[in-house]
Amino acid sequence: MNTSEKDLVIRSFDQELDQAEGSELESLLRSDRAARRLQAEIRDLRAAVRRSCEGSFGPDFGETVMQATETPRGRGARFLRVVQLHPFAAAAAVALLAVTFGAIALLPRAESNLLVYSTPNGTTMSVSLPDGTQVELNAGSTITVSPNYSAERRLELSGEAFFKVAHTGSTFEVDTPQARIAVLGTEFNVRAWSAVEHRTIVALRNGSVSVTDRNSRTVVLEPGQQVQVSDAQRSGKETSNLEAATPAPTSDWRTGGLSFRNEPLEFVAAELERRYNITIELDPALIGKEATYLSQTLEDADTVLSTICESLGTSYTRTVRGYSIHSRTR
Question: pTM, whole model, 2 decimals?
């Protein structure tokens, strides 16, 4: 994906494309994995900012800030336009840019604070919330904390995080596109890469967790159990059966490990891109092929790819943009 193609993907969110550009974008998204990933990342970011701003500034405020602060120019460079915003709007613009570039953002507000924490690819981060809850964010993940967190312990997650919830007597809630997780005080892992996997996986280590899908069906987990909630529009499923499983493999990322058990190769490739901050081009013929890889220690990208490809009878090569996994040796 070159610079002009990146600009096309970005512009499609704020401008109505003409017929030729629409056809070009459609063809690009079909053929280029990096373009699909960029589109999904922008969509997730904008959705998170939009939801976060609605409660504080009105339903269209987040979209206005995004349109006002980011515009492609020239050879794909991004610049800031000077806009007339009231003080809260300016603060929101700063918060949006901080999220975009993988920083920790704090949006001041008269009554309370809006917190957005985000990690870029190749980086993890530990966060302490105002009530003492500890959150570990996997690479490429974002949490958006409720503006009224002191009275309503709620946040939104896009990505993966491990939570060690402080017991304050009030409910702690995590929202993902597929589910709401509610606890009082416990330790659990949530995986919600909705732009790629279209599912939420909750694995409980200690305490008790209730998981409710978008059809208001609820299941309660006990320590050592996990549940998967799928996006019905994408997968044709709603909520999977409760599975008794140890949650430890789900959170091996916290110590640098990787755990895949019969996962589609496109999920694995996306995880490796986030983990190692690399780009992986996947042969379309391999989409849906399942891979297993278990390691509790940190390995380099070449070692992981070599092991996975050997087990699948495939191969990989280095490219100028990262790696390419293909079905036959070249």
Answer: 0.62
Give the per-residue SS3 of the chain.
CCHHHHHHHHHCCCCCCCHHHHHHHHHHHHHCHHHHHHHHHHHHHHHHHHHHHHHHHCCCHHHHHHHHHCEEECCCEEECCCCCCCHHHHHHHHHHHHHHCCCEEEEECCCCEEEEEECCCCCCEEEECCCCCEEEECCCCEEEECCCCCCCEEEEEEEEEEEECCCCCCCEEEECCCEEEEECCCEEEEEECCCCCCEEEEEEEECCEEEEECCCCEEEECCCEEEEEECHHHHCCCECCCEECCCHHHHHHHHCCEEEEEEEHHHHHHHHHHHHCCEEEECHHHCCCEEEEEECCCCCHHHHHHHHHHHHCCEEEEECCEEEEECCCC
Question: Distance from CA of residue 31 to its chain's centroid?
Answer: 22
CB 215 within 8 A of CB 202: no
Beta pairing class for 125-128 and 134-137: antiparallel
Q: How far apart are CA 98 and CA 321, in angstroms?
A: 25
Take residue 36 and report the two structure tokens written for it: 């699909």
Q: What is the third-level CATH fold of 256-330?
A: Phage tail protein beta-alpha-beta fold (3.55.50)
Rounded CA-CA distance 191/202 in Å is 7
C-alpha to C-alpha distance for 181 and 164, rounded to whole angstroms: 13
Which tens digits make up the pLDDT trace of 116-136? 899 999 999 999 998 999 999
What is the C-alpha to C-alpha distance for residues 261 and 203, in angstroms, rounded to an integer?
A: 15
- Beta-ladder partners of 317: 324
- Summarised one tens digit per residue, pLDDT across range 133-188 is 999 999 999 999 988 888 889 999 999 999 999 999 899 999 998 899 999 889 99
Tell me which residue has tokens 């990342």. 41
CB 99 within 8 A of CB 142: yes
Residues 147, 95: contact at Cβ < 8 Å? no
Per domain, the residue ranges of the chain are 1-101, 256-330
Q: How many CA atoms lie within 13 A of 41 on its CB side?
A: 22
User: What's the pLDDT score for residue 11?
Assistant: 83
